[in-house]
Amino acid sequence: MFTYYDDLDEAENKQVKLNLSSLPDSPVKLTVRLLDAAHDDEPVREEILTGKDASVYLDLALFTTCLVTLEPVD
Amino acid sequence: MQTVSVDFSKNLGQMKPMHAVNNGPVYKFAEDQRVTNIDAFREAGIPYARTHDASFYANYGGEHCVDIIAIFPDFSKDPDDPASYDFVLTDEYMKVMDFAGVKPFYRLGNKIEHWPKKYGTLPPPDFRKWAVICEHIIRHYTEGWANGFHYDMKYWEIWNEPDLDGDDSTHKRCWGGTKLQFFNLFEIAAKHLKACFPHLMIGGPAICNPKGNWKDEFLSFCRERKVPLDFFSWHVYAKQPSRVLEYEREVRAALDANGFTETESILNEWNYVRGWTGDNWIYSLRTMKNLKGAAFVASTIAASQYVPLDMLMYYDARPCALNGMFVTDMVCDCLKGYYPFRMFNKLYQWDRRRFSIRRSDDLRRRRDRWKKRSRDVHLLRRFG
Predict the structure, then answer these.
(1) CATH number of the domain that B300 lies in?
(2) Is the CB of B382 less than 8 angstroms away from the CB of A5?
(3) Which of B2, B244, B357 to mutate to test binding with chain A, by most A CBs within 10 Å of its CB?
């Protein structure tokens, strides 16, 4: 769960690099759910990750919250 | 760019209940004219709802629910006689919480009284009798006394914000007596209730100024008089989550310094407030209900996982000006501030899937301090 908060009412977007390690041997599905002006905890991105390590980039505008989940691929 | 590293080989413990709130869902069992948010409560998995200020809201039961003067309206009556009690509308409110899967966190006392004449915030005429009345309320909801229930209601809180106004104030909104009178009430009530219910969590007193001397004097008093304190509750309103975290650490340190190392620290009123007067107050109320307020909520919930705090309870899920979760007149409509609770609940429900996080030195230090306290660390992070 990532949030970009500041008591300022304007600020530049931020980019976050998420490094994942010791992932399972089998593929996992990554889902990003977003809360911002246009989304209410809605999935906006899905991708399949393979291998023990992976990196994911997230762009966060001010006052957005995102929830990143990983689940085994059926 | 900022980097967050997560190692899935590490197991760092369970999630803490950071998505508890003040007050429960709006619902009525009769179908006519029902406008409800009970499904939203369920989806967010709200674990606990504190009952403070419930009696402001008509659909919970208004003046006839929760507060001691509502349940036991005539203090001259026999506290052992079920006929002395009026449980009807409080029963209904507890049934709604049970129907939603929310556990009540019951505040024994009264709502704040902003008006010039005081009623339920005046000191009870007899502190021992007041404690016996509270005992019977607990027995009603947990042991079935007086045609009652066997609910799993663990937390019983004695009073609310007795430190809001000083002894010399002419407008005491939450406690009409002196500080020492309150300490006396708390000692009598806590000792009586803990003796009756050793298995329950008896605590309080929901102070509003965690930085002040009042807190230190109260904790010293409890230590010296051996007053049981299963949890210590307190409040803070701020514009930066970092400020909230600062208080969370300070309260824990004060508890430990007074020997209350096993006492839970529960922050059971918090929200965004830039200022309490004029434009700052209006700005605060607007912020609570918009995306910025939602980000403040998400950030505070997330960051509080890393500090020695046992529970967060947002103020307020009751339809009112400080409710950033639901539209006041149409509680079936969620505001932006509802969604961080639902998002966090996904993590809370997955707490058997443990994570480790490695990021900045600051975060590592925070995590290490937390681990030293045998508490938990989780995959949550805020930026800003």
Answers:
(1) 3.20.20.80
(2) yes
(3) B2
Tens-place pLDDT, residues B60-114 = 999 999 999 999 999 999 999 999 999 999 999 999 999 999 999 999 999 999 9
Show the domain range for A44: 2-72
- Return the closest-CA partner of residue A36 out of A69, A70, A3: A3
Tokens of B353: 């899937």
Q: Identify which of B335, B349, B380 has the alpha carbon closest to the alpha carbon of residue B40.
A: B335
Domain that holds residue B213: 5-372
How far does B372 lie from chain A, in Å, by closest CA? 24
Give per-residue pLDDT as tens, A35-44: 999 999 999 9
Q: Report ipTM (2 d.p.).
A: 0.96
Total number of domains in chain A: 1
**Residues 6 or more apart whose Cβ sits within 8 Å of residue B56:** B62, B111, B318, B320
CATH number at residue A44: 2.60.40
A27 interface with B at CB cutoff 8 Å: no
Provide the number of structural domains found in chain B: 1
Q: How far apart are the first and last CA of chain B?
A: 12
Whether A40 sits inside 8 A of B299 (CB atoms) is no
Does residue B184 belong to any structural domain of this protein? Answer: yes
Token pair recorded at residue B370: 């937390």
